[in-house]
Write a structure and sequence with these properties.
- The chain is mainly β and 54 residues long.
- It contains one helix and two strands; from the N terminus they run αββ.
- The chain has one domain.
- The termini are far apart.
Length: 54
């Protein structure tokens, strides 16, 4: 499993390339195992600025 913990080092590495926003519009959930919800569908928008300097 991938380590998804957010650290200051990971934030610094990402912000070196640019920045952006993710906005969740709406979503539909269903009951999963052990009380964890499952996302059935999701609408979102993303705005990204920056990137590699080529």
């Amino acid at each position: 499993m991938m380590d998804a913990a957010v650290t200051q080092e990971k934030i610094a590495a990402v912000t070196g390339f640019g920045y952006g926003t993710l906005e969740i519009g709406d979503y539909g959930l269903e009951e999963g195992e052990g009380g964890c919800s499952i996302i059935n569908w999701l609408t979102f928008s993303v705005q990204i600025e920056g990137g590699y300097d080529l």
